[in-house]
Task: inverse folding
């Protein structure tokens, strides 16, 4: 079992060296790597007690790394947004701008479609009025979708 | 953008497209020049950064890794594992927009993303990818995107029309948001910078007021830095959301 563990860790060490540039390596692999690099795997063969001890330590370490990894991913995003001056203001402004853009885009598209249909049909203000109203509705529908979608979409 | 301060403020002047240099008699505009610069910077970060593949990453390598991880997380969380097919597209868009926005903050440079034709071209690329892949993957079922479920047949034509307009407005809102943010931010910076120059040039007691707009310029630059990042992120995440519609249409 230990032999397998050692082989796996060596393999993963090689794998990490090849693919580390894209950090796909899991926390577990990194933990095993630490062990091989520090040369502690050799001492492991001596007894059962140490085997269990090693196992526990491995488990603890990989658990901690996994936890830290998910935490730091979350934190990194938060700090990136808030570390700059006025982080909250910037975020709120981004949200406001987004909603504004959605509304304007809807109205704009409705207007252009109505205008063009008027040109083609010759029923001058009819389609412009109808599609302007539809465009406003679409703009508000965009906002509703943007703000009540998933939590991720609500963030911005 | 720093104030060039000729007395009168001309905040729009910074967006004028002019020949920057000539290659064999052919003019290359400032916009094109800065797009080439963006390309070089992005390639430099990714190619040189990943060349070593060191276990302990260098600064450049960790920059590349952070960029990769950040975009990969964004794609996975909003378009799922299937969305990773489009990772190269989203990553390229994110890097282009981010570096364009950041380079634009350096005084005397040109902000590529402050022109709507550029942002609209990017948005059109996203939407045509969504439409083409949507039809390729789902065939006619892609049109289910426009048919909300659980609506009475009387209202259906109206709602389908609204949904279609809403869909058509996506590339416009995507491009207008980025362009408007960059344009507004740079104009504001220029105006406040111009105030500093005007107050200093006034030669009266008003000179003592000059630090006020200058402090504002500093604060706005920090805000613009945040906006530059945030808008690139919003562009990437909305690309993912729209691609998600192409992968899983229907409400």
Result:
């Amino acid at each position: 079992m230990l032999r397998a563990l050692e082989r796996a860790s060596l393999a993963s060490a090689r794998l990490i060296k090849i693919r580390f540039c894209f950090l796909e390596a899991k926390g577990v692999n990194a933990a095993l790597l630490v062990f091989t690099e520090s040369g502690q795997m050799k001492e492991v063969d001596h007894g059962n007690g140490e085997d269990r001890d090693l196992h526990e330590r491995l488990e603890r370490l990989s658990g901690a790394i996994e936890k830290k990894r998910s935490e730091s991913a979350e934190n990194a995003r938060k700090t990136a947004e808030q570390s700059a001056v006025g982080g909250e203001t910037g975020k709120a402004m981004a949200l406001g701008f987004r909603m504004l853009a959605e509304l304007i885009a809807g109205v704009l598209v409705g207007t252009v479609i109505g205008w063009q249909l008027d040109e083609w049909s010759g029923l001058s203000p009819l389609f412009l009025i109808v599609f302007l109203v539809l465009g406003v509705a679409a703009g508000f529908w965009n906002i509703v979708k943007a703000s009540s979608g998933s939590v991720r979409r609500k963030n911005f | 953008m720093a104030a060039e301060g000729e007395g009168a403020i001309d905040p729009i002047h910074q967006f004028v497209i002019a020949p920057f240099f000539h290659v064999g008699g052919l003019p290359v505009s400032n916009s094109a020049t800065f797009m080439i610069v963006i390309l070089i910077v992005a390639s430099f970060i990714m190619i040189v950064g990943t060349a070593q593949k060191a276990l302990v990453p260098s600064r450049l390598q960790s920059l590349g890794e952070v960029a990769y991880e950040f975009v990969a997380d964004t794609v996975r969380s909003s378009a799922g594992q299937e969305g990773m097919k489009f990772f190269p597209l989203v990553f390229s868009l994110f890097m282009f927009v981010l570096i364009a926005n950041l380079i634009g903050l350096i005084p005397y440079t040109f902000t590529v993303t402050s022109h709507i034709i550029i942002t609209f071209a990017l948005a059109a690329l996203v939407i045509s990818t969504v439409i083409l892949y949507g039809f390729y993957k789902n065939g006619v079922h892609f049109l289910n995107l426009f048919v909300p479920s659980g609506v009475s047949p009387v209202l259906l034509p109206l709602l389908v029309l609204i949904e279609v307009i809403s869909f058509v407005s996506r590339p416009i809102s995507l491009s207008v948001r980025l362009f408007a943010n960059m344009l507004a931010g740079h104009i504001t910076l220029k105006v406040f910078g111009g105030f500093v120059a005007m107050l200093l040039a006034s030669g009266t007691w008003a000179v003592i007021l000059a630090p006020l707009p200058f402090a504002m310029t500093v604060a706005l630059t920090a805000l613009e830095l945040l906006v530059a990042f945030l808008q690139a992120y919003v562009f990437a995440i909305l690309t993912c959301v729209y691609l998600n519609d192409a992968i899983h249409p229907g409400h």
User: Anything to note?
Assistant: Residues 49 and 148 of chain A are 55 Å apart (CA to CA).
